[in-house]
Amino acid sequence: MSGDMLNNPDTMPASYPQDSNEPSQTSSAPSPSSEDQAIQACWGRVNLRMRKDIGDAAWRHWIKPLRVSRLEDGTLTLEAESTLARERVSSQYADRLRVISAAEFNDVSPSIRHVEVRLASNRARSGQPHRLSEQKQAPAAASNSAITASATEGRDDLMAGLDPRYTFANFVVGKPNELAFAVARRTAESEKVAFNPLFLYGGVGLGKTHLMHAIAWHIRQQSPSRKVLYLSAEKFMYRFVRALRFRDTMSFKEQFRSVDVLMIDDVQFISGKDSTQEEFFHTFNALVEDGRQVIISADKSPTDLEGMEERLRSRLGWGMVADIHPADYELRLGILQSKAEQAPVQIADKVLEFMAHRIVSNVRELEGALNRILAHAMLVGREITIESAAELLADLLRASSRQVSVDAIQKRVAAHYDVRVSEMFSARRSRDIARPRQVAMYLAKNLTSLSYPDIGRQFGGRDHTTVMHAVKTIESLSKSDGQLAEDVQLLKSILAG
Ligand code: ADP
Ligand code: MG
Q1: Nearest CA to ligand 1 atom 9
Q2: Is the Cβ–Cβ distance between 322 and 179 less than 8 Å?
């Protein structure tokens, strides 16, 4: 696309095709008054909050189709598309709408006290344009309202779909993600383009999306005038395909090339999709050459992205490439502790430790596990123990279970009792070493399918009767010694598959 096309307003369509998540708009729409714009911006914010509060499905069904028809004397009048919608919104969502609108409409109207829902007039329902301050003059445009355009183009809609919990403050930093965190922060904080592109990669559920949203939130707060656009590669493709279908690639290009910061999440999604890749490549180049910040995430490094054109792969690797490694035990525990701290019920440390040991797949699964535990704790109001946690999380634990080796048992037990692993095979018989060794033998018997003689051999060539004795000793001591029983239970839970 040539530079004068970009700068000449006459050749710039007023809008671009949207995906189904957003109100659509038409290219012949007249520009709305500034009051309309302000109202629509407020309404856009109300929508964002409603969507968060009542969930995507309900929002899409009941709230999204509503149109603001009037704002007068502290009453916000909304129009619904059907009687059913009107009734449902009035009975179920009006209170919430009133509270949220009162807050969000603050800059155009001093305090909204009522929200009224009316049935839309025929003209509005048939999709004719519909303007707030000059309804009678609305020219006939092909579809939908001009006023939605201002809301869609507002900053708030660029931020739509960003999770408010995904902030830097809520991101727990550990060895596996410290580089990615540091460069993400730097990118967000610097007014000038820091690394271009910033390429974040790592396996699923490790925090890529979280970091991208955090960058967006940070920029929005620090430099509200910078235009940030975040979207998944899937959405990028979807919009591109739509633009092709509606022969509207000009506005598609314009939309992307007018932002200061473009973030495309999960770029591996466009692997093998040649025309989307091509378009992405051009968009990417145009932005980078123009000194705009581009931030990309993927599940693999640029060089490993299969089905991606060579020149694009190499281009993606030109800036800063930062990987996120799978969370280690410390980070998993840190994440659990930080999330548990914010929860209304308390979960014992040893339960969190148990979970951090046993759920190793990714952070998303770890979070899911914690939510399940929290929900249970709140419902039954009883303290969660390692046993009940193991039961509640059985499916997850099974999925990440592995065959336990005697070696692993010895290491884990030695670490637990703070003795050297070599003591597991040594001939020393002092109590503080013999007891842990017996615990390890007991666990080996319980957690593996090895025979007594097999186990004896792996404990420095001991006789099978020594192992039998150890197993009996631990069994009977567990009945009287609570501390020992707890240790054994913890170790078992950690090691068991
Ligand atoms: P990805 O995009 O890499 O698949 P997400 O960013 O969606 O992963 O992360 C999955 C979940 O785990 C999110 O709820 C996110 O908030 C959480 N999460 C991931 N890493 C961290 C972290 N270091 N600290 C706190 N939460 C995290
Ligand atoms: Mg993601």
Answers
A1: 207
A2: yes
